[in-house]
Amino acid sequence: MFVEISQIPAEGLDLLYQGDLPEREGLWEPKTPVRASLHLEKREKGVVVSGTFSTVVGLSCSRCSDPVLLPVEDAFEIYLTPPSRALDENLELTPGELDVEFLEGDKINVLGLIVENILLSLPWQPLCREDCRGLCPRCGQNLNEVSCNCHEEEIDPRLALLKKLL
Ligand SMILES: [Zn+2]
Ligand SMILES: [Zn+2]
């Protein structure tokens, strides 16, 4: 979904987006449509986009690689500025903690912004549950489901030597 900057009225533009979340291979599988409510407002030469979004994405657990369903809900605010402004030494970075990005052309890729912010709100290491035990590094079994005997056989070689000496 694109918004032409020239179509944003002086009082700002409110948008509701509800639609499919594009798949990001290796990152997530879309599970429910994404809902986002956005406000676009011109500021100087740029545009401030603020909004909230919610969706559910499918990830894999970083320990056992089981599928994880993760509800994602967050808010963002971003200042889109024409690239030439970056060279302007008087560019005052916007108040607060606004993220700054460059505009590309005269349209705003609204869905692109939503996708980007969903990405930013994902955990680095998603877990199927807090205490996921992961896969056994030796036999590869899922330790949430079985308990293998690998760790019992695993004896520090120095200890083994010591045992021999004793
Ligand atoms: Zn897991
Ligand atoms: Zn094992």
Structure in words:
This protein has 166 residues and is of the alpha+beta class. It folds into two domains: 2-131, no CATH class; 133-166, no CATH class. It has three helices and eight strands. It has helices spanning 110-121, 150-153, 157-165, and strands at residues 2-4, 13-19, 29-30, 34-43, 46-60, 67-81, 99-102, 107-109. The strands form two sheets. Strands 2, 3, 4, 5, 6 and 7 form a six-stranded mixed β-sheet that branches. The longest helix is centred in the last third of the chain and has 12 residues, at 110-121. It is elongated. The chain starts with a strand and ends with a helix. The structure holds zinc ion (ZN) (2 copies).
Write a concise synopsis of the structure shown:
Helices cover 15% and strands 36% of the residues.
Relevant terms:
single chain; 166 residues; alpha+beta; 2 domains; 6-stranded mixed sheet; two-stranded antiparallel sheet; 8 strands; 36% strand; binds zinc ion
Topology:
Elements: E1 2-4, E2 13-19, E3 29-30, E4 34-43, E5 46-60, E6 67-81, E7 99-102, E8 107-109, H1 110-121, H2 150-153, H3 157-165
Parallel strand pairs: 6-7
Antiparallel strand pairs: 1-8, 2-4, 3-5, 4-5, 5-6
Bound molecules: zinc ion (2 copies).
